[in-house]
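I am writing to request your help with a piece of structural work I have in hand. Here, with my thanks, is the record as I have it:
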Amino acid sequence: MNKKIREIVILICLLIFPIFSSGGDPMNNKKMITVDHVDLKKYIGLWYEIAKIPNTFQKMCTGNTTARYTLRDDGRIGVQNRCMKKDGSFAEANGIAKVVGTISNAKLKVSFVRLLGISLFWGDYWIIGLDENYQYAIVGEPSRKYGWILSRTPEFLPEQWEAANQILKAQGYDPEIFVKTVQDSLVSF
């Protein structure tokens, strides 16, 4: 397998594995609850990863991690994830998301693997915290093995950290296990 294909496979894994988890942590019996409603037209656009629970499938990413969401004609959401690697180049993966919690639009399934035009391996993407002005979001999944803090800007204000930590605690996460993502304001997307 050549280096480029291996990088693509790693990036796909980076984006797929967290969304496959389900069930719940037996050590944490608290039920995860999504936000009441997500206006998808407000949610689309560019998000910066501010922090995440460290995981093996993102270890090639050194920073400048983003997700760009777009509304598709078929009602699904286009997903483009990017991150900077150690050598300064970017890894990118494209996928799709579909809403499965249609009352709230806060529960989605995401797939980054397509074979013959068929999306495979759908996994959980739950919006468990969302600023009323759509300036930051907390994304999780029921097992709590993975989680992300996203922001519309590469900077995160102290009051946003405080609000995000309160949401994480209320959802059964330990905020201390989240690691800040390096965002270089000189990098443009």
